[in-house]
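Side project, low priority. Logging it here so it doesn't get lost.
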Amino acid sequence: MISNLPNLISLLRLLLAPFMLYIDRAYLPLFFLSLALTDALDGFLARRWHAETKMGKILDPLADKVFLLTAFYLCSFELKRLHPSVFFSLLARDFFIISGALMLWLRFKSVPSPSFLGKMTTWALSLSGFLCILYESNTFNIFLSEVCLLFVFLSWMDYGIRGIKSLKNQTFF
């Protein structure tokens, strides 16, 4: 049961993100920005009101993944502004993170916390997705593709190293 506002905001982002594929392109930047801002809002409210929940620790990153994967599918295949490798690398990284988190959940019965680099990656990818939607410049979008791939790779390695260390030390991060 979702009983607090931060979780409702995360659920709303999760459910609305796929609509980016169907919304009129004229309204897409505003719609995207609204969804991106809900990510900051739900986390702020959860901390401010001391309303952090186990459900929120699962729902928020899941909503982020659906939001970003939808945005990068849109930018790569619908708008054709980013190289498809950005979408596929993000998809592979998220599969890796979810699989690792599930393994850690089964072993430690706790949800892993996002790393600082993971949070920065979400922020950088959100900004890149927004800029990709706004601008059609091939040169700029090649630069965005490279920045996104760098952040995806670094966060993937960070989560992998943290997961291996926690399993090796029999501790939970």
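Brief comment: The radius of gyration is 16 Å.
Revisit when time allows.
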